[in-house]
Amino acid sequence: MTVSILTQALIDGILIGGVYAVIGLGLSLAYGVMGVVNWAHGEVLMVSMYISYYLTKFAGFDPYLTALVNILVLGVVGFILQKYIFNRLINRGKAAWRDILLFTAGMSMALQALFNLLFGAEVKSVETRYSGMLELGNMLVSVPKLISFLLAALCCAGLYVFIQKSEMGRALRATSQDRITAQLMSINANLVYCVAFVISLGIVGLSGALLTPFYSVNPYVGVSFCFKAFIIVAMGGKGNIPGAMLSGVIIGVIEKLGGAMVGDNLAQIFIFVLFILILLVKPEGILEKRVRG
Amino acid sequence: MSEHSGEAILSGKGVTKRFGGLVAVNHVDIHLNKHEILGLIGPNGAGKTTLFNMLSGTMPMSEGELRYHGKVIPKPRSNELCKMGIGRTYQICQPFSNLTVLENVMVGAYIRHGKTSEARDAAYQVLKRVGLEQAAHSGGSALTLPQLKRMEVARALATEPDVLLLDEVIAGLNPTEVERIMELIREIRAGGMSIIIIEHVMRAMMNLSDRIVVINQGTKIAEGLPAEIASNPLVIESYLGGGKH
Amino acid sequence: MKQKKWILPVIVLLAAILLPVVFHIGLSNMSILISVLLYMYWASSWNIMGGYTGLFSLGNGIYIGLGAYLTGCLFVYANLTPYAGMLVAALLTGVFSIIIGYPTFRLQSIFYSLATFALLGMMKIIFTNFQTIFGVNVGGSNGFKFSPGNDPLNMQFSSKMPYYYIVLGMLVAVLLVSHWITRSKRGFYFRAISANEGAAASLGVSVLSLKMQAQFISAFFSAMGGGFYCMFISYVDPSKMFGVELSINVMIMCVVGGANTLWGPVIGAGLIYTINRIVTMYAPSSLNGLATLISGLILMICVFFLPGGLIPFLADEREKRAMSRRKATLQKQSGGGGGIHE
Questions:
Q1: Residue C309 lies in a domain
Q2: Which chain A residues contact residue C295 at CB under 8 A?
Q3: Do C201 and B77 touch (CB under 8 A)?
């Protein structure tokens, strides 16, 4: 195991980690503001990857520009889902999270099966003009991965500014802390939820486009992304943007380094172990809420 | 005012709670005498419920000592304290919505009666005592607010406690209902209970309590008979200057 | 009044017992019946921790798979008869479930669910990638196989009928245990924990201890089902046992039928399995995965429109109709005189 292979894996891990981070942020936003754990988060990503794939392959789109289409489509879907479904589920009281989990689990199953029926289970990938390697020193950096990383980082930065500085961002933060108090401060909960979920799915739409140049798609590709998004939510805490970025990179690095050492298959164990460790170390936000004083 | 022995049944010394850098409750000494109704008042956010949570074991103390019947309790936890005889209600009612009213109260009764039939009988008796027996088979969440409050009290009573901690059991009720609950509380005390009650409704507090402790910003600022407290300038200032009502 | 409730289930049980005796049931249909009963059994097992106690485990397959492997290994390597092996496997799995469960019980419920999901994934990777575990050859990705024999003392029968009766007996057992639990102090405590842990603790409920009990009982039964399955097909496939599909399907069956009820899991399993079967049989083979799509849709529809599951929904409807009938009778009785308030 040479140093250069490990360093290569490290770089790879950081680059893909940026995309993981942004996907995790989408989930973190929905969970933090609405309490929605979207089990189908990965499948939404899968759908956006298919959209990007077909637009790029058969309509000659630039893969990164398909992000605009994805964001639009998924934003609308997010709006509809939130308004007609999650709104009702959220207000079901204490067991709401179970219903939401079950509903999105059903959605996840259905989407996987649907896309399997529609497009078959074969893995699909597309050659784009973003290919090849950059040479930095004696390290090779994949061009599409680098571009995607930068765009993902840009997105995170933009989100950070939005959440910290804007009026709506403040409303999102307040609702994420304490829904009831936020309502007392006359923050319109429905509007806030709407914005949060639209952004959440919009981010996923962007990520689908970011992945297309170097990641192949099949109906089941969403599962591992979704799990990593969960880890980011657990590690980074609700809506904690710098935390999510760091977590994403950590996950990416562990995955690629692990893959270099024991093969991609077994490297997945490291991811699971990481998750379990996070839960054992118990950062704030995932412990049972104590009765507030 | 009823007679009560001088010894404290429940006492906390130096009770402190820190959340990170914030000190929510700051070295409070508080004691409850037998058969006493102790009122705990203070502006919003003063730390009353946090103090309550520590006295009932729902929340661990950062510092402090809890004594029950004179004996120190090293690591008070709510289920153990309940078995020892300390019961509590919650400010925001917490019904078991998947159980009927009777079954809700049975959960409390089970701690003293292991057999289902005995627990059911005991629970039914408690329901009659608080005047809820008509609603025995309604769903645990399909109740009006006054009924929910009574069920909270009934559940705690079913554990046959010696000490009852009531957290804002009056808030949100109309004057008639307030009178009825106050009657109930007096009855419970007459039956031998010692009670600490947090309340914002001043009239009720002054009428019910034998003694009052005032908390502001985590510290005890006054303690004494209702009449003394009502004319205490510090207390008045804390309400006017401090939090909203 | 209570006695009346038992007449129908007893009749159904008698019918189930007599079914293979009266009718000649072919091999494949027998397999179907056994599978249905086994899913009903697994759904009822999950119900104890997921439905009653609110421990929403997404990793039921962990216990099923462990039970299968342990029973099989004890049989093949230690010559332990599966009748005992199933029990030993179930006990060991139960203990395992508490050990891994203990750190997760204090988590917010959603993270408990995710943790079970993560553990399931780990088990799958371990059992599909390693040929030997703790020195025992478990077959790796090819699965654990042994030759089917004809030795009744070792739960190997040439005909399928005995398996039918064994699983039927297991189903009756888990239902009886569930029923006994709901009427006992433990059952009330389980459901209180499910509704509101904090309030339960204030009423003296030892939340942690009871969660462990619920998990143990549920894992115990699930594992026994796994052991049975292992002996039934003489094969343990890690990607199936520890796969997401099995765990989620068992959960769906329980939830769609009615998670907090006795018969919910049974009805739910029967319904979902039947639908799955029909779809797989009659759909053209090019439509691969249609059954999964339908299951997912059923789950979504059920969660949205029938929140408690089928059985509570039907019970609610029946009560609503009874109440309106009562109202109508009252109206008739107060006559056409009018002016009489209700």
A1: no
A2: 106, 109
A3: yes
Q: Which partners does chain A have (≥3 C-beta pairs < 8 Å)?
A: B, C
CATH 1.10.3470 assigned to domain A3-281? The reply is: yes
Long-range contacts of A157-160, Cβ-Cβ distance < 8 Å, separation of 24 or more: A159/A25, A159/A199, A159/A203, A159/A241, A160/A241, A160/A242
- The beta-carbon neighbor of A291 closest among C198, C248, C255 is C198
On whether residue C192 sits in a domain, the answer given is yes
Whether residues C191 and B96 touch (CB distance < 8 A) is answered with yes
Domain membership flag for residue C314 = no
Sign of CA dihedral B178, B181, B183, B186: negative
Work out the minimum CA distance from A5 to partner chain C, whole angstroms: 24
Query: In chain C, how many domains are there?
Result: 1
Rounded to whole angstroms, how far apart are CA atoms B208 and A198?
Answer: 53
Work out the average pLDDT over C286-305: 90
Q: Is B141 on the interface with C (CB under 8 A)?
A: no
Instruction: Report how far apart, in Å, the C-alpha atoms of A272 and of each of A40, C180, C251 are.
Output: 19, 37, 22
Residues of B within 8 A of A290 (CB-CB) are 53, 58-59
Q: Could you tell me if B166 lies within 8 Å of chain A, comparing CB atoms?
A: no
Q: Are C250 and C60 in contact (CB under 8 A)?
A: yes
Q: Considering the domain boundaries, does residue C39 fall inside one?
A: yes
What integer pLDDT is reported at residue C135 of this predicted model? 80
Domain ranges in chain A?
A: 3-281
Token pair belonging to B47 = 């730390």
Q: Which structural domain range is residue C167 located in?
A: 2-243
In a 13 Å sphere around the CA of A92, the CA atoms on its Cβ side amount to 21
Question: What pLDDT score was predicted for residue C129?
Answer: 87
Residues B2-11 as b/e (b if ≥16 CB within 10 A, e otherwise) read eebeeebbbb
Give me A89's structure tokens. Answer: 């589920």
Residue with tokens 């120190």: B72
Q: For residue range A127-168, what is the model confidence (pLDDT) as tens digits? A: 888 888 888 777 888 888 999 999 999 999 999 999 888 888
pLDDT in tens, B130-155: 888 888 888 877 788 888 888 999 99
Q: Chain B residues with CB inside 8 Å of C185's CB?
A: 110, 114-116, 119
